[in-house]
Amino acid sequence: MRRPPLSGLLALGLFASSIGHAAPAGRAAEVLDHAIIHRTVEAAAQARARASGSGAGAGSNLYYHGGSSGIGVETAPKIYLILWGSQWNNNDPSGESLLLQSFYTDVGASPWLNSVTQYCQGVASGTVFCNGAGTPAGNQPAMLAGVWYDNATAAPTQPSQSQLAAEAVRAAQYFGRSSGSANASVQYVVATAHGNNASGFGTQYCAYHSWVKSTLGKVAYTNLPYITDAGASCGANFNGLGANAGITMVGGHEAAETITDQFPSSGWLDANGAENGDKCAWLSSGSGAAADVTLNGGIFPVQSLWSNKANSGAGGCVLSY
């Protein structure tokens, strides 16, 4: 089954939609461009209930959507973390900065992330199994390529998507990645500080990833709010994994999705517009339930990721590959 590209639409985990975020009274809702959101725990549960009631299910295996200018996956992923705004100064009660740095440093070459390597680019649109064709997504060590403490001035109080995208482009300049080829396989994680998150966070989404066209080429970025500000809605104590569980669960979700769909939605998605993280988000029981995994430098809570090859090719959520 094939479907049109989702560029310009807001893909809500299991289904695609062009709606915007809830906004304060008197303020227009923001409609996200090229963005795929990571639903909150409650929103994901509601979507699964609707899908089950309609008989639609969670979609099929992921398939390739043709790529964008030849790029569909990150073949040698690099992650740059941007701690945006002076609001970060002496304002990190959950220790999210260091936890993210540790996780992004250790996640490369892990069995948890290795399922991304079954997806590739350079194959025909509609491909479900690469089987050695094309160029696979990467899972190499030391994915964290740099951290920018951009905290000399304040970030916007409630940053819009365009402001987040502009910060990602500034980060690309800061790190000297000044062309489309230099930004292939690169993702910029724009993390905002405690109490300084974009509209819709914690009520509709926990994070989202997107891309923007710039003079530096296409720049892929993630809006990563201060996850613990949303409490249980974005993973606090999810599955008994601790108050800070959502930080790496959400951070890992977005990193894996960007690796397999760098420029949404031209990479690997299912028939409902869900990526490898969406299909396995917030599972509390059964195969693929969220759990602690041991990476090179420690133990981190993560969600499972979708593997087309699981269950003899029927697909499923896996914590290792």
What's the short story on this structure?
The protein is of the alpha/beta class and 321 residues long. The protein has six helices and 16 strands.
Kindly list the characteristics that best describe this protein:
321 residues; two-stranded antiparallel sheet; single chain
Structural topology:
Layout: E1 10-12, E2 15-17, E3 36-39, H1 41-54, E4 63-64, E5 78-84, H2 96-106, E6 120-121, E7 135-136, E8 144-150, H3 161-174, H4 180-183, E9 186-192, E10 205-214, E11 217-224, H5 245-260, E12 268-269, E13 291-295, E14 298-302, E15 305-307, H6 310-313, E16 316-318
Parallel strand pairs: 1-3, 5-8, 5-9, 9-11
Antiparallel strand pairs: 1-2, 3-10, 4-12, 6-7, 10-11, 13-14, 15-16
Helix pairs in contact: 2-5
What would you say this structure looks like, in words?
This protein has 321 residues and is of the alpha/beta class. 20% of the residues lie in helices and 23% in strands. The chain has helices at 41-54, 96-106, 161-174, 180-183, 245-260, 310-313, and strands spanning 10-12, 15-17, 36-39, 63-64, 78-84, 120-121, 135-136, 144-150, 186-192, 205-214, 217-224, 268-269, 291-295, 298-302, 305-307, 316-318. The strands form five sheets. It has an eight-stranded mixed β-sheet with strand order 2-1-3-10-11-9-5-8, with helices on both faces. The protein has a two-stranded antiparallel ribbon with strand order 4-12. The protein has a two-stranded antiparallel ribbon with strand order 6-7. Helix 2 (96-106) packs across helix 5. The radius of gyration is 18 Å and the shape is globular.
